[in-house]
Amino acid sequence: MEFKKEIIHLTNVPEVVDQIVNELRSNVLNTLRRKGAVVGISGGIDSSVSLALSVKAFGADKILGVMLPEKDSSPDSAMLAQKLADTYRVKTLTENITGALEGYGCYQRRDESVACVFPEYNPKTYKMKIGVKQSNVSQNLPPIFYLTIVDPYGKEQSKMLPAAEYLQIVAASNFKQRSRMSMLYYHAERLHYAVIGTPNKHEVEQGFFVKYGDGGADVMPIGKLYKTQVYQLASYLGVPQEIIDRTPTTDTYTAEQTQEEFFYQIPFKQMDILWYAYENKFPLAEVAKEMDMTVDALEKIFENFARKQQTTDYLRRAPIHM
């Protein structure tokens, strides 16, 4: 097969949708013996496509869309999530998890670590985020995370995050995904429904998910789809254009942040093509020529992919039975 930039584009979207819907229906109704689906909706493209597929599989009357905001969430998330639910005429409810996160000490533990790096940080007036240096991909360096704070006047400061503070910020932030999944399972169990997961192929295979958080669902209908393909399905399924046009974000920290900035380091349109080449072992020279890259730069990106798979392997592992 010749390598081309268009290689990951689906040419048979209706067939792919029908296949996913049939498998989703069989897995939920026959294998899991559940009678409907609960989907956490956030106004993002992945949860929107997962909801649309679920509606097609079970009917709108067998779907519950759950919005799970907390005090750091963007108001746009709730607005777009409700627009999505209205489009597909599904029942929704809102579970604000701020109280649960305060009980876990999520914000306190996170802010404590931020203040270790920036003593002037005040969570009442400052915003914060963490992100990885983008240039490390081309230099074949392990990801180096930086902490950025934004003062009340919009001025940003960034510093490299020491390991201990990085780990505590991430561990505290992961309470958000795990709290959301606990709430989704509450509603799934009371309704005898299945929880539908929303991670796409990159999130699963590169480890951009929280173990027993957004990685803890019953079925993941888009888990084998590249982001480009998720967008193709979104257009076909009638997902609202505002959601399709929205830049993918983490919606985890108080300062605005894209998924590329936080984890991937490469725009998804390029990453999709390169990941396909990487996992299908296309010759480096052939890929580099098509992508107008040097072989050396491409090799470094592939090594970065391999490192991410290796370091996040434990996230994909089931519990070890002794």
Would you mind describing this structure in some detail?
The chain has two domains: 176 residues, 3-Layer(aba) Sandwich (Rossmann fold), CATH 3.40.50; 63 residues, no CATH class. It has 322 residues and is an alpha/beta fold. Helix content is 51%, strand content 10%. The strands form two sheets. Strands 3-2-1-7 form a four-stranded parallel beta sheet, sandwiched between helices. A three-stranded antiparallel beta sheet has the order 4-5-6. The protein starts with 12 loop residues before the first helix and ends in a 6-residue tail after the last helix. The model has no long low-confidence stretch (mean pLDDT 93). It is globular. 37% of the residues are buried. It contains 14 helices and seven strands.
CATH superfamily of the largest domain: HUPs
How are helices and strands ordered from N to C?
HEHEHEHHEEEHEHHHHHHHH
Count of strand segments: 7
Structure classification: alpha/beta
**Domain unit count:** 2
Portion in beta strands: 5-15%
> What characterizes the major β-sheet?
4 strands, parallel
CATH class of the largest domain: Alpha Beta
Report the average pLDDT across residues: 93
CATH third-tier fold name of the largest domain: Rossmann fold
Helix fraction, binned, reads: 40-55%
Distance between the termini: 44 Å
Which term fits the overall shape?
Answer: globular
Tally of DSSP helical segments? 14
CATH architecture of the largest domain: 3-Layer(aba) Sandwich
Strand order of the largest sheet: 3-2-1-7
- The low-confidence parts are none
